[in-house]
Structure formats: structure tokens, C-alpha cells
């Protein structure tokens, strides 16, 4: 039941009634789709790890000849209408113990997955092993001490979550973030695994109360402040860290 609610929630957030919530998720979506569109690699085989509602599969299938999506949960894969694609294969697989062939993929998308599973080192080692030499990994995950993640620890408490749902007038569920990393922690693992960083960005600022009650004016302030703190020591406040990584 919870899996079905999470799938429903993933479909809601991109059209949220709350300007900040809608913007933050769509900014990440726009970032990812732009990276996919501008990829300058052989357009053969792509993989998405944990496709969720499948929002990126269309972009991948338009870009690549063959696309595979994997998830440990069958419910997520069953939610994807495979008939909409003629080059998509859905496979139940655990990236922590993957059965996928080594050196298979030209491109891998892993967005908002790492925070849900443990053993980040092992996951990134496995991803690297199934990438072809020169292959690209697009990785996104929240920053550990961003205001949204810190406030979520309170918002998901029993009773509090009902108040948040009332404020947003939309479903709110515990996102299940059990393995959040700071930027320096994740970058160290990336370097230890042996990926080359091609690009990195941090995006989206959430300000408590302003996000909930500030409407479009509050969002305008958040966007302004996000630009001002980018590249400064306050970048840890931005919600999502994004990496474009290459297997060398």
C-alpha cells in the first residue's frame, strides 16, 4: 500500500499546488532532461536505476536505442506502461547485488536513489562495473544538511505530518531517506571509486515557513537566495547535489 502511495505522490509533486514544492522537483527534472538531451556519447544502451513513476523513461527512450529500467520493487515496474515504448526492458534487480552484465551501458541515470539504500561505496562500484569505459553516470541525491532534509525529520513525525498535509492540501509521505550524504562525503566516495567528475551542481533552496506560506513571492525569494549562495560556503543549504561522472 505504501508503495502505491509513493507512486501516486511522485505523480503529484510535479504539479503541486505549492509553488516551492512544484518548482524544486521540476527544476531537478529540467536539469536531468537537459543533461540527457545534450549527451555527446554513443546512443546505444541506457539504464535507469529506480525509475519511480517513470518520468525520465521517455527522454531516455528518445535518446537511446535500448533502455533498461531496474528496481528492487516489482510494484514500481508494474506501474510503468511498457506499451508506450518499443525499446524498453523492465527488470527486477538490486543494484547492491546486481546481475547485470559488466561494461554494458553507455549511460546510467541514478536520481534520488542513493538516499534510500545503504552501502553507497558498493552501489557506486557496481554502477561503475556495468558502465562501458567512457560511459557516463548522472547522479543526483539530496544534501544531508539542506533545510528541507533537516525539517523533514520533524515533518514526518506522527501527528506533525497530518498538519503538513493540511497546510499543503496534498499527500505527504515519509520519503524514507536513510542514507543522506554531505557533498564532501559523497565526493570522497566518488573519487575513491574512481569516477572522473565531468560536472557538478547544487540546486534548489527550501526555506521553512516561507515555502509553506510565501506563495509565489516566497519562491521568488528562494530562487534569488539560491543564486546568491551558489559557489559560497553556504551551498550546503541547497537541496540537491548533481554529478555528471565518467568511467575512465
Primary descriptors:
248 residues; alpha/beta; Rossmann fold; seven-stranded mixed β-sheet; 10 helices; globular
Task: Summarize it.
Helix content is 41%, strand content 21%. The chain has one domain: Vaccinia Virus protein VP39 (Rossmann fold, 3-Layer(aba) Sandwich), CATH 3.40.50.
Q: Tell me, what is the CATH class? A: Alpha Beta
Q: Please state roughly what percent of the residues sit in beta strands, choosing from under 5%, 5-15%, 15-25%, 25-35%, 35-45% or over 45%.
A: 15-25%
Strand order of the largest sheet: 3-2-1-4-5-7-6
The CATH architecture designation is: 3-Layer(aba) Sandwich
Number of helices: 10
Give the CATH topology.
Answer: Rossmann fold
Number of structurally distinct domains: 1
Low-pLDDT residue spans? none
Query: Would you count the extended β strands for me?
Result: 7
**Global geometry:** globular
